[in-house]
């Protein structure tokens, strides 16, 4: 085990780095009588009104532990209230090998262009793209490589709308050198090989949401392949 966090509530992310207007809570599924398993989870949402603040209402939350390459990243996800978008970053670091939290990098506030076209490099998967009507009409999971916002792989999104969600969904990313694979509940969605001269490795893992999405997370683990 490289990193493990049950994500049962706000206390479990006391050392995480928040960028933008994120709000923490605890989700309780009500137990078996209500179709749950009685396990609490970390509830994440935004603090700003998305209509009033636009793209500045979104946020990113970083795990503070640097992750090596050749890993399997797993977590569980449950959408609670739409619309919105859920995303994860991995292999994230500053340009020229700088640490993601180096004081020499520009400040980040959750505004998306700071992450895809700023002074950090990262891979990011958007897997619950229910923010806009066009995304909800034809749902996909997108893998992008940044800086540069390059769409490098795409697959179908099997996640239902929040009202139809049936318990937590098991998310898995494999980052193995040039290879990135993504699956939900064991269903492979894409498997990509980076043919560039500069594949990303190491770096940090982060969670991002677009407001006003409310979603719950639990059981994050990062293990070597």
Characterise this structure.
With 225 residues, the protein is mostly beta strands. The chain has a single domain (3-102, 112-224), classed as Sandwich (Jelly Rolls). The chain has helices at 50-53, 113-116, 133-137; strands at 3-5, 17-19, 22-28, 40-46, 59-62, 71-81, 84-94, 120-130, 140-146, 150-156, 169-176, 179-184, 187-193, 204-210, 214-224. Strands 1, 3, 4, 6, 11, 12, 13 and 15 form an 8-stranded antiparallel sheet that branches. It starts with a strand and ends with a strand.
- Can you write the helix and strand succession as a string? EEEEHEEEHEHEEEEEEE
Biggest beta sheet attributes: 8 strands, antiparallel
Low-confidence stretches: none
Main CATH class? Mainly Beta
Helix count equals: 3
* Cα-to-Cα separation, first versus last residue: 10 Å
- How many beta-strand runs? 15
Q: Based on CA inertia axes, which overall geometry fits?
A: globular
Measured by DSSP, the beta-strand proportion falls in: over 45%
Structure in a nutshell:
It comes from Paenarthrobacter aromaticivorans. The protein is mainly beta.
SSE topology sketch:
Layout: E1 3-5, E2 17-19, E3 22-28, E4 40-46, H1 50-53, E5 59-62, E6 71-81, E7 84-94, H2 113-116, E8 120-130, H3 133-137, E9 140-146, E10 150-156, E11 169-176, E12 179-184, E13 187-193, E14 204-210, E15 214-224
Organism: Paenarthrobacter aromaticivorans
Pfam families: DUF1961
Protein name: YesU family protein
Keywords:
mainly beta, Jelly Rolls, 8-stranded antiparallel β-sheet, 7-stranded antiparallel β-sheet, 3 helices, DUF1961, YesU family protein
């Amino acid at each position: 085990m490289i990193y493990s966090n049950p994500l049962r509530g706000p206390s479990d992310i006391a050392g995480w780095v928040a960028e933008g207007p994120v709000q923490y809570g605890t989700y309780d599924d009500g137990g078996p009588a209500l179709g749950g398993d009685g396990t609490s989870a970390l509830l994440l949402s935004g603090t700003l009104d998305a209509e009033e603040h636009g793209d500045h209402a979104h946020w990113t939350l970083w795990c503070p532990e640097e992750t090596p390459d050749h890993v399997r990243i797993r977590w569980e996800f449950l959408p609670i209230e739409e619309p919105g978008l859920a995303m994860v970053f991995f292999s994230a670091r500053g340009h020229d090998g700088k640490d993601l939290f180096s004081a020499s990098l520009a400040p980040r506030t959750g505004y998306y262009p700071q992450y895809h076209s700023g002074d950090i490099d990262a891979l990011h998967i958007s897997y619950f793209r229910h923010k806009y009507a066009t995304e909800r009409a034809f749902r996909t999971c997108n893998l992008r490589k940044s800086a540069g916002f390059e769409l490098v792989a795409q697959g179908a999104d099997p996640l239902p709308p929040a009202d139809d969600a049936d318990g937590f969904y098991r998310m898995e990313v494999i980052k193995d050198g040039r290879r990135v694979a993504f699956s939900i509940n064991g269903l492979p969605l894409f498997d990509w090989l980076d043919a560039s001269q500069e594949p990303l490795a190491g770096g940090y893992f982060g969670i991002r949401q677009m407001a006003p999405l409310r979603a719950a997370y639990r059981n994050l683990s990062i293990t070597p392949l």
